[in-house]
Design goal:
The protein contains three helices and six strands. By secondary structure, the protein is an alpha+beta fold.
Amino acid sequence: MVVHSGNQAESKPQADKKTMLRHVVIFKFKEASPAVEVQKVVDAFRALQSKIPEIASFEYGTNNSPEGLNDGFTHCFLVTFKNEKDREAYLPHPAHKAFVELLKPHLDKAMVIDYWAAE
């Protein structure tokens, strides 16, 4: 949970609530990347949950907002961790690094936001 106090935000969860660390990843793929290659990237991202035990949960979807404010970003992934230690294990994990290498040729832009969510 992020608590705002003026211009500052707390990055730690409140001690009295059960929280999960959410890692939101949003991709804008290159227009030249064929759909079959984009699907390979999606499948590889999905497979990380079975390769990296620190991932508590994983979900994803494609943009279907009628607002037209996605700025070309089409795919959203939500990776959940129990704590910062698990996220720290995920980022340098060999399976994650291999995924990033598969992604790079097709990625136009990425946005990543992490936050604490109270259950």
